[in-house]
Design goal:
Elements lengths: L3 H6 L5 H11 L3 H31 L5 H10 L10 H15 L7 H4 L1 H9 L5 H19 L6 E5 L11 H9 L7 E6 L5 H12 L6 E4 L3
Parallel strand pairs: 1-2, 2-3
Helix pairs in contact: 2-3, 3-4, 5-8, 8-9, 9-10
């Protein structure tokens, strides 16, 4: 799984300092070549994103609010830290496209702080978050085909042992309905909220294979 949390909170551009620090301390020729190659990759990524933005800008019409919003988001993410749920979502999608690794991982965990903040500030709604996650899952299915061995692992436990369930957990369950990829796995604890159970059992009742239920406590 790509390090989405780093890409979202720090931005891909933040890798430059890490690479330069490693290069400064590297004495082995092979290690130096590797770090220099990473700088080349980073520079290529920066150029690719800037060209992509320029291309999208050439398509914008005055009334195209969706494309305008996308371009503005891309000017921030994924190269710089995301500030909103939408930018965090764009950063995740861009990271998948750049690496051709369509593994969402713990999507309800790393996107939750942005959703919670934007919801409190009136910048996002439940329905919009659902549409975005659904679009991500559809992109994964279309990009990977089926069977596509990709996974979104939701729910379960935070690193401090507390339960990790929230509205995005429910949204991810609802968003996978009718799709075959990615494989959504719900990590189940005894204290999992009823609304998460309801969403999961609704999908299963309707004949869907998602989410797979995994006993977190074992």
């Amino acid at each position: 799984v790509p390090d989405f949390e780093f890409v979202i909170t720090q931005g891909i551009g933040a890798y430059r300092q890490r690479i330069e620090d490693a290069l400064a301390s590297a004495t082995d020729p092979g290690a130096r070549m590797f770090q220099e190659a990473l700088l080349d990759v980073l520079e290529g990524t920066e150029i690719y994103i800037s060209r992509y933005i320029a291309y999208l800008e050439s398509l914008i019409t005055q009334s195209d609010a969706v494309l305008i919003r996308l371009v503005e988001a891309l000017k921030q993410a994924p190269m710089k830290p995301a500030r909103t749920f939408y930018e965090a979502y764009i950063a995740c999608s861009a990271a998948m496209g750049l690496t051709y690794c369509f593994e969402p991982g713990r999507i309800d965990n790393y996107l939750w702080p942005y959703y919670e903040k934007d919801l409190a500030e009136g910048k996002i709604t439940y329905d919009e978050a659902f549409r975005l996650i659904r679009a991500m899952f559809e992109d994964i299915e279309q990009g990977m085909g089926h069977p596509g061995v990709t996974h979104a692992t939701i729910g379960g436990t935070y690193s401090d042992g507390s339960p990790c369930y929230n509205t995005l957990t429910e949204i991810a369950i609802r968003a996978i309905a009718g799709l075959r990829t990615p494989n959504v796995t719900l990590r189940v604890r005894r204290d999992m909220p009823d609304y998460i159970w309801d969403a999961a059992l609704e999908n299963i009742k309707n004949g869907g294979s998602h989410p797979a239920l995994v006993n977190e406590e074992l």
